Amino acid sequence: MRSRSIARAAARVTLGVALLAVPATAVAAAPDGRAAAPSPTAPRTARAGVGLDDPAKKEIAMQLVSSAENSSLDWKAQYTYIEDIGDGRGYTGGIVGFTSGTHDMLELVELYTKREPDNVLAKYLPALRKVDGSDSHDGLDPDYPKDWHTAAQDPVFRKAQGDERDRVYFDPAVGQGKADGVGVLGQFAYYDALVMHGDGDDPTSFSHIRRRALATAQPPAQGGDEKTYLNAFLDARVWAMKQEQAHSDTSRVDTEQRVFLGNGNLDLHTPLDWKVYGDSYHIG
Q: Which of 36, 49, 266, 280 has its CA 20 to 30 A from that of 2?
C-alpha cells in the first residue's frame, strides 16, 4: 500500500532560498528567491568524512525517503507516479512528490519544456500556472496523469526531475547540514524535513524547525554536541509533524532516524534496518 505523506507548507514557492549557517532568527535568501551565495563569514566547520552528496550516500538517502513516501526502496520507479492524495495540494507526482498546488511541479514542467519544448506536458503549462496555490485540476483533467506517465519514459524528463529535486531540496539540505557541522545522518534529517515540509514562513517549515532546534541546542559548527543537536532537531521535527493530521504518524523519525542516531550511526553506514509506518526495511 502506498503511504504517500507529502503535505507541505503552502509557502514552498520560496524553497529555492539558500539555507546558510546564520543565527536562529534569520535565514539568508537572494532577492529573487533563488539560492544565495554563501556568506564568507558563515561557519563552515563540517565533521570529517563523506557527505550525503557522496554518490553511495545519496542513493541511500533516496531509498530512505522512498520507503516513507512510497512504501518501497525502488525510488527510480517513482518517476511515473502521479495521483491526487487528497491533501489539498492537487496532483502529487514524481520522485519527491512535486505538487501542482505548491509551485514545484510547475517549475519542473517549465524546466522540462525549456530543455525539450515539444513535449507532452508543455500544453499544460497555462493550467499549471492557473491552479498553482490550489487543489484544482482545472485544465489538467482528464489526460494529465496519462501524459505524465508518457513523459516519465523520456530521459530528459527524468533528468529534469532529478535536477529540480537537487536544486530545491537536496542541495540546500546538504549545504545547510555541512554549514552546521553535522554528518551524513544530520544532512539526511534536513533533506527529509525539506521534502515533507518545504520552506518559507510557515511555522512548520524547515527553517522554523531548525530555529526551534537552535533554541535548545547548538550545532557542532557552534561548538555543540552533534547527537544532542540532532535530537533537538528531531524533537522539533516531530512537533511540526504533529501540527497536521496528515503527518501525525511520526515513525519516519521515531523508528528510522532516531534508530540510526541512537546507534551512533552518524554517517549512515550500512547495513541499515528501520521501520516506517510499521513496515520493515533493510539496506545491506
A: 266
d(CA 150, CA 245): 33
Is 87 assigned a catalytic role?
A: yes
Residue 256 designated active-site: no
Ordered per-residue pLDDT tens for the chain, 284 residues: 233 333 333 333 333 333 333 333 333 333 233 233 333 333 444 455 789 999 999 999 999 999 998 999 999 999 999 999 998 899 999 999 999 999 999 999 999 999 999 999 999 999 999 999 999 999 999 999 999 999 999 999 999 999 999 999 999 999 999 999 999 999 999 999 999 999 988 899 999 999 999 999 999 999 999 999 999 999 999 999 999 876 789 999 999 999 999 999 999 999 999 999 999 999 99
Residue among 84, 87, 104, 267 flagged as catalytic = 87
